[in-house]
Specification:
The mean pLDDT is about 95. The longest helix has 13 residues. By secondary structure, the protein is α/β, with parallel strands linked by helices. It is built from ten helices and 18 strands. It has two domains: about 170 residues, Quinone Oxidoreductase, Chain A, domain 1 (Alpha-Beta Complex), CATH 3.90.180; about 130 residues, NAD(P)-binding Rossmann-like Domain (Rossmann fold), CATH 3.40.50.720. The strands form four sheets. Strands 3, 5, 6, 9, 10, 17 and 18 form a seven-stranded mixed sheet that branches. The chain binds zinc ion (2 copies).
Length: about 325
C-alpha cells in the first residue's frame, strides 16, 4: 500500500506493508488526512519518531480484529490518537490520553494514517454522522484539542478572555469559543487570518496594537502562537490570580523570566489533546465552519507539493485525499 514514511527523510513508499490487525483493533481505509504542525516538527526531529506520519483523519472501517463487533465494518469514522493500555490507574480514571504506556498514532510507536490503511483500537474510533463532510471531519482532532481547554478551565460569563496566535491552532480555538458564544479577543500578527475570527463576530487585535494598558487585564489568556516569544507576551496580559493556558509545545527554553508568574500568582495550565464526542456534537449541529481554514487539498501522489504548501507562509490547513 501507499504510505508517507518519515525515516531521516520524508518519502512516499508505494509498497509499504499492510498493517496487522490486533484482536482489539479495527482496520481503517483512509479517506482524508490533515497535515498538522506536529507532522512538520517530526520531520525536524520531534519525538525522534520514525514511521508513517499522520494523526488527523476520516476513513471507513474495512475489517475488524477477532474481539471487535463486525457491525463496525463499513462505518465512516474518526478516531482519538492516543492508544492506551486500558489497565493502568489513568486508564481506569478515563484519562487514556495520559496513559504512561500509550502509543500515539503517527507520533509515538504507532504508524499513522498517512497511508491507504492503518489500525486503531476499537475504543478509539467513533462513527460520525452523514451530515459531517470529509473536510470537516478531518478537523475533529485539532478542534477537540481546542475544546480540551474548556474541560480544564471554567470561563464565566463575565470573564475577560484573550487568544494569542492566529495560526491553525489559534483559529481552531477561536472557532470552538465562537460556537459556544464565549466572549474573547483574538490577538495575532496577520490581518487576513484574524479576519476569519472577525467574520465569526469576535473582537480582534493586531499584536502591534497591544499597549501598556492591555497588560494584566485578562482573566484567561490562551497561548497558541507556537513561537518562543508567545509565553512572555501572553503572561504579561494575565491579571493577577488569572490563568494562562499553554497550547503550544514550543515555549521559550532560555531566559524565561517567571518572577511575574510568582508575584501575580498566575495559574498555568498545560493543555494538549481533547475528547472527540463534545466536538462531534457541535459539528453535527453545523455550529462550526472549518472551510475558511482550508488552504489546499492534494492527492496522495502530490504529497511533496502538499508539504511544501504547508511550509509556506500564510498557509493554514492542508488536506490530502486518498
Ligand atoms: Zn495534530
Ligand atoms: Zn493505561
Amino acid at each position: 500500500m501507499k504510505a508517507l514514511v518519515y525515516e531521516n527523510e520524508l518519502k512516499l513508499d508505494a509498497n509499504y506493508p499492510m498493517p496487522q490487525i490486533k484482536s482489539n483493533e479495527v482496520l481503517i481505509k483512509t479517506s482524508m488526512v490533515g497535515i498538522c504542525n506536529t507532522d512538520y516538527e517530526i520531520t525536524k526531529g520531534y519525538m525522534g519518531y520514525k514511521g508513517v506520519l499522520g494523526h488527523e483523519f476520516v476513513g471507513i472501517v474495512e475489517a475488524v480484529g477477532e474481539n471487535v463487533s463486525t457491525e463496525l465494518i463499513g462505518k465512516r469514522v474518526v478516531g482519538e490518537i492516543n492508544c492506551a493500555c486500558q489497565e493502568c490507574e489513568y486508564c481506569h480514571k478515563d484519562l487514556q490520553r495520559h496513559c504512561p504506556n500509550r502509543s500515539t498514532l503517527g507520533i509515538w510507536q504507532k504508524d499513522g494514517c498517512f497511508s491507504e490503511y492503518f489500525t486503531l483500537p476499537k475504543e478509539n474510533v467513533i462513527e460520525i454522522s452523514e451530515n459531517i463532510d470529509d473536510i470537516t471531519a478531518t478537523f475533529t482532532e485539532p478542534l477537540a484539542a481546542a475544546y480540551e481547554i474548556l474541560e480544564q478551565i471554567h470561563i464565566r460569563p463575565d470573564s475577560k478572555v484573550a487568544i494569542l496566535g492566529d495560526g491553525k491552532l489559534g483559529l481552531c480555538i477561536s472557532l470552538v469559543f465562537s460556537a459556544l458564544n464565549i466572549d474573547y479577543v483574538h490577538i495575532g500578527k496577520h490581518e487576513e487570518k484574524l479576519a476569519i475570527s472577525k467574520n465569526l463576530g469576535a473582537k480582534t487585535m493586531l499584536l502591534d496594537e497591544l499597549k501598556e494598558c492591555h497588560k494584566k487585564t485578562f482573566d484567561y489568556v490562551i497561548e497558541a502562537t507556537g513561537s518562543t516569544g508567545g509565553f512572555e507576551i501572553s503572561s504579561s496580559l494575565v491579571k493577577p490570580r488569572g490563568t494562562l493556558v499553554l497550547k503550544s509545545t514550543i515555549v521559550a527554553r532560555e531566559g524565561l523570566n517567571l518572577a511575574s508568574i510568582v508575584v501575580d500568582e498566575i495559574n498555568i495550565v498545560g493543555s494538549r489533546c481533547g475528547q472527540f464526542k463534545p466536538i462531534l456534537r457541535l459539528l453535527e449541529k453545523g455550529k462550526i465552519n472549518v472551510k475558511p481554514l482550508v488552504s489546499g487539498i492534494y492527492g496522495v501522489d502530490e504529497f511533496q507539493e502538499a508539504f511544501e504548501k504547508n511550509a509556506q507562509k500564510g498557509t493554514l490547513k492542508v488536506l490530502v485525499k486518498f
